[in-house]
Amino acid sequence: MRHLKPDPVPREDLEYILEAATMAPSAGNLQMWAFVVVTDAGQRKKLAAVYREVGRQYIRDGVLADPDTDDDRRRVYSKALHNVEHLDEAPAIIVACLTLQCPDDAAVASGVFGSIYPAIQNMLLAARARGLGSVLLTLATDQSPIAPVEHPAVRDILGLPDGVESVALIPVGYPEGAWGRPRRNPWQDCSHWERWGG
Ligand SMILES: Cc1cc2nc3c(=O)[nH]c(=O)nc-3n(C[C@H](O)[C@H](O)[C@H](O)COP(=O)(O)O)c2cc1C
Fold it and tell me: Where are the domains of the chain?
């Protein structure tokens, strides 16, 4: 749900979402996560400005400006552009962070990243259970392939200490419009019984 109303979200719902996040599994139960909840209008504007800078560069001037971008990808990124331009309208933005430095070793890194995404998914589901919309954004975080130039980085806006890295920005708010079924390939196309091809 990318389109959100500006109406504030009750604190109790935000706490419910955070509790749901912390119920997620993590490698070795290390719980290497932290969450910064941003509701202050000034802080939201700063996060939105850095996301807009990086999002315009990557989505508007990159993917969507490329004549080779096919229609499916163009549809996905055209929708994503809404958050690039309107992130500050979300009444709350939860920033999910890793509290463990991500190593270069891909096998270990997958365990580290794989320990925060279940928590993020729990947040999306918990928000949905409370009638709240949300979306997972990773551009402009510490993991983004593009660093901002004009605006301070997310970590500086939030004052993250060394060893803590932002992974995702999750705007949360009441939905503008109706939820639809996600556009996905049929589950039958990626599922097998007993062995591959079965
Ligand atoms: C690891 C990951 C990173 C993502 N990063 C972004 C992002 O930076 N910006 C964005 O608009 N959407 C992002 N998304 C959301 C996807 O674009 C979205 O899930 C996909 O387009 C399908 O849309 P739907 O889930 O609403 O059906 C991300 C999703 C995942 C799993």
Answer: 11-190
The tokens 């551009």 sit on which residue?
A: 139
> What's the pLDDT band for 104 if we cut at 50, 70, 90?
confident
Residue 181 has pLDDT above 90, yes or no: yes
Q: Model pTM?
A: 0.97
Of all atoms in ligand 1, which is nearest to the CA of residue 184? 27
CATH class assigned to 11-190 = alpha beta
Q: Could you tell me if the CB of 54 is within 6 A of ligand 1?
A: no
> How confident is the model at residue 101, as a pLDDT?
83
Rounded to 5 degrees, what angle do the CA atoms 184, 185, 187 make? 105
Do the Cβ atoms of 90 and 169 come closer than 8 Å? no
**Does the beta carbon of 76 lie inside 6 Å of ligand 1?**
yes
Closest residue to atom 27 of ligand 1, CA basis = 182
192/108: higher pLDDT: 192
Ligand 1 atom closest to the Cα of residue 1 is 26
58-77: pLDDT as tens digits: 999 999 999 999 999 999 99
Produce one character per residue of 63-72: b if its CB has 16 or more CB atoms within 10 Å, e if not.
Answer: bbeeeeeeee
- H-helix or E-strand spanning residue 120: helix 117-129
Task: Tell me if 136 CB under 6 Å of ligand 1.
Answer: yes
> Nearest 5°: CA angle at 102, between 98 and 107?
120
Residue 84 CA: nearest ligand 1 atom is 11
